[in-house]
Amino acid sequence: MTDSTQSRSAESTRARLKIKLANVYVDDQEKALRFYSDVLGFVKKADVRQGPYRWLTVASSEEPDGTELLLALDDNPAAKAYQRAMFQQGQPAAMFFTDDVQADYERMKARGAEFTMPPTDVTMSKIAMLKDTCGNLIQITQLMR
User: Fold this and answer.
1) Where are the alpha helices (DSSP H) in the chain?
2) Range scoring the smallest mean pLDDT among 1-15, 42-56, 111-125
3) How do the domains of the chain map onto residue ranges?
């Protein structure tokens, strides 16, 4: 078998996985939907209810058929403990990328967002951190080239 044949063979057996869904635990799904839609500018993708269970997702308005973010209720004690610990440690529950962190900071602040860190230069990027009103910190990141 030649090197190119082996390479093609390896590529054909490799999994072609895509990230389609990620989740963030929230303490109130309705409040989370308002924040992620009205403040961040995401669009609602799915809202399915079955009894007390609610499957609620949002996606970027720039890529509405791209990766979805599940706004999962933190009604599980382990989820609640994880969410609280991450918040207390100052760790973001999610990180979103932008081409202009300063402009997004100004836009979100005008919509009532509470930032814990204004746009700040860090290694190879500029970041800002805000509260999502549902128990999480969210990081907005602009890669610097």
Assistant:
1) 3-13, 29-34, 77-88, 101-110
2) 1-15
3) 17-143
Please give the structure tokens belonging to residue 67: 């990766």
User: Top-level CATH class of 17-143?
Assistant: alpha beta
Instruction: Give residue-wise pLDDT tens across range 59-81.
Output: 999 999 999 999 999 999 999 99
135 touches 92 (CB < 8 A): no
Give just the sign of the alpha carbon dihedral 98, 85, 132, 108.
negative
Supply the DSSP symbol for 144.
-
The gap from C-alpha 27 to its chain's centroid, in whole angstroms, comes to 16
Question: Which backbone phi and psi does 44 adopt, to 5 degrees?
Answer: -70, 130
Which residues, in sequence order, are CB contacts of 51 under 8 Å at separation 6+?
A: none
Distance (Å, whole) CA 94 – CA 114: 16
Q: What is the pLDDT of residue 10?
A: 55
Q: What region does 51 belong to: left with phi over 0, alpha with psi -120 to 50, or beta?
A: left
